[in-house]
Design brief:
Helix content is 52%, strand content 17%. With 302 residues, the protein is α+β, with helices and mostly antiparallel strands. The strands form four sheets. Strands 1, 2, 3, 4 and 5 form a five-stranded antiparallel beta sheet that branches. Helix 4 packs parallel to helix 7 and helix 5 crosses helix 6. The radius of gyration is 27 Å and the shape is elongated.
């Protein structure tokens, strides 16, 4: 938590369980309804929320996130983004990659079994049911869980549509399987073979989309990490005529910071005194340093 003034506070929360922009919007709306919150911003990429207002106890904010169907915890330091954020992002990307590979392999077996003709009749449908069941309830578990949570909260999201469509197709396949077992004369044609395939293809391609989404988000996270590493974790401030080095989380608005030659600017600021040149190549791509004088804006990390 960072105290910006005597009656105004900034609280950072780490939110777990968000999967899409709709999740971030729902979490933000829940935070904005808490008394004392002036402004709330939720970042899906970093899985963090920044709450501005007069709220001193973060527990109501955590309770609001919990009631929205997610989990939250306090981020004590407001300086450098935690390394576990990047590690968690890499782990999630790897998990979705593995889910897609497994789902694609099972889908290939499903398609091959349906068209090669090794199995026929109820045996074919039974084999399809086993393979499609793994895709439906193992690979597709995150979608089913998300759909249940959404329904419990009284809302609908993408997981609800995925679960509804795939469960309907899978259930229809199970009905055809039972009919084929009960009635030996029942003909299992191409139409009857497609129910399990339809459900499996939907989950497989949606899982591919999830993997690509997390992969792209990982690239964004890498860019954020590179930018974060440019900024120092501490800054030299001038308070009551004394010069001291403090963590960025303890610096408030309108404080005076001292940047020596060769140092990086720790925070976005306006030059009060002195002239120098600042390297802004990471931001503008311009390799020539930019001259700065009193009244000019300087950005963190330059």
């Amino acid at each position: 938590m960072t105290a910006a003034s005597d009656d105004h506070r900034s609280i950072r929360l780490r939110i777990e369980g968000m999967h899409c922009a709709g999740c971030a919007a729902r979490a933000q709306q829940a935070l904005e309804k808490v008394p004392g919150v002036r402004e709330a911003s939720v970042n899906l990429v970093t899985s963090e929320a920044v709450v501005e207002g007069t709220v001193e106890d973060p527990q109501p904010l955590i309770d609001a996130i919990t009631s929205a169907g997610y989990s939250a915890s306090i981020v004590e330091a407001a300086g450098r983004a935690p390394d576990e954020l990047f590690v968690r992002q890499e782990e999630e990307t790897l998990a979705w990659k593995q889910r897609f590979y497994l789902s694609a392999l099972l889908l290939i077996l499903l398609v091959a079994g349906s068209y090669i003709g090794i199995l026929h009749g109820p045996w074919l449908l039974a084999a399809q049911c086993v393979l499609a069941g793994i895709i439906q309830f193992v690979i597709g578990y995150p979608y089913l869980r998300g759909a249940v949570r959404s329904l419990v909260r009284g809302g609908l999201n993408m997981d609800t549509l995925i679960a509804l469509g795939t469960l309907t197709a899978f259930s229809a396949g199970c009905v055809v399987l039972v009919r084929a077992i009960v009635d030996p004369a029942f003909h299992v044609g191409m139409h009857e073979r497609m129910y399990f395939l339809d459900a499996s293809m939907i989950i497989t391609f949606v899982t591919l989309g999830k993997f690509l989404e997390h992969y792209a988000r990982g690239k964004t996270t890498d860019a954020i990490r590179a930018l974060v590493e440019l900024a120092p974790e501490t800054a030299v401030v001038v308070r009551a005529g004394e010069v001291r080095e403090v963590p960025l989380s303890e610096i408030g608005v309108d404080e005076t910071i001292l940047v020596r030659q060769g140092d990086r600017v720790p925070l976005d600021a306006v030059v009060l005194d002195g002239c120098s040149e600042v390297d802004e190549s990471w931001l503008t791509g311009e390799s020539i340093p930019t001259a700065k004088s009193p009244g000019d804006l300087v950005l963190a990390g330059t």
